[in-house]
């Protein structure tokens, strides 16, 4: 069994030089987007804040040269772009433009102002009260929307959910897949981030929508308490807690806890469906209406 990413997700084939060390001089323009500054970098790509030809802010993700030279990595990036084009824009950072055939494939998205859940907890502490309920409801609604589009995200974690002004936004579809995609179980590889990977994946089962519901439970507990529900430690220790259902939910509000516990069930068939979850938690939070999309560009995209 191989887990891709001890400290984070590694959605692309690991290739020598793919840590950004071989990064050439910073680009000044990608497509029609004028680069302003680098805002992130990871094993697969660099992310830049940029301005489009109309002067609107965008976030541009560009593969590192060594990654771009790998055919499997290019194919995965092209799939990410294709999936992003089908996701409801009000629940993610909308795709604006892309070129998967470029020497260094890239994509551009709206630049959304707002911290990640992890960034907020680190800086401000856990969410509470109405803010927590609205986060739980908004994230459930966003996950249900992704599933209605026929997509499983597979990598929901604190760094991949933004707290935007109009509700949570799901970002980084680097290891997402279509629900109807024909994948073989038993490959021995697990893609995801330790502590957020659903238990069925450790049994060599292809993760379906229930894996995202499991992540919802973990994220709500994390947002409420500031603690990773399955703790820290080695990958083996974390996996054992996940497999045994040993989530630390102390401090999770009683109103949400039954749904969090249901979402974290070790049997995916016994978790609520995302649509059921969105309806139930939305009822707890009361009427929620997303404001109209702002005319200015917003957003963030993970660099991996």
**Which homologous superfamily in CATH is the superfamily of the largest domain?**
Transferase(Phosphotransferase) domain 1
Strand order of the largest sheet: 2-3-4-5-7-6
Strand fraction equals 15-25%
Corresponding CATH architecture of the largest domain: Orthogonal Bundle
Q: How many whole angstroms does the radius of gyration measure?
A: 19 Å
Poorly predicted runs: 1-21, 291-304
- The strand count comes to 12
Query: How much helicity do the residues have?
Result: 25-40%
Please tell me the total number of domains: 2
Q: Supply the helix-strand structural class.
A: alpha+beta
CATH fold-type name of the largest domain: Transferase(Phosphotransferase), domain 1
Major sheet details: 6 strands, antiparallel
- Element pattern in H and E: EEEEEHHEEHHEEEEEHHHH
Let me know the average pLDDT.
85
N/C terminus separation: 22 Å
Any idea what the shape is?
Answer: globular
Pfam family, one: Pkinase
InterPro entries: Kinase-like_dom_sf, Prot_kinase_dom, Ser/Thr_kinase_AS
Domain Protein kinase: 33-284
Keywords: ATP-binding, Kinase, Nucleotide-binding, Serine/threonine-protein kinase, Transferase
